[in-house]
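User: I'm writing a tutorial on reading structure tokens. Could you give me a worked example: one chain, its sequence, then its tokens, then a sentence or two explaining what the tokens reveal?
Assistant: Sure. Here is the example chain.
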Amino acid sequence: MVSRSDRLKRLVKLQDQIKMMHEMRHASHLSQATAAGQEVNELLESLNTASPLPGLFADIYNRRIGAAMTRQAQATAHADVEAGHVATATARSNVVERAYRDAARLEERTQEEKQVLENIERGLSDRK
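And here are its predicted structure tokens:
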């Protein structure tokens, strides 16, 4: 039979993996938002230069800028959601870790008490 502390130890590992997954997704969304923001800045800079292309294809530039701004806003919103998931996963991980430490201490104390009782019984049986 698997002890409670062993089950909780596996659960701690699982919670840490879940937390890392949410952290990676959060970082990915932030990276996407940054990339979209850089694209917006580059397109705006090209509009401000003396090049004739942005003037000829202003509609295309404006649509690309709008799409990049939309992607940036969506990625930022997704990053905010993932930040909430990270916080939740961290809290769960902390709770499970505390429960694991408590269960391990309890099992250790029970084992020590059992050992003490065995020693006492052995000492009493040796006297007879």
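What the tokens reveal: Residues 75 and 88 are 20 Å apart (CA to CA). The helical segments are 4-48, 52-56, 58-127.
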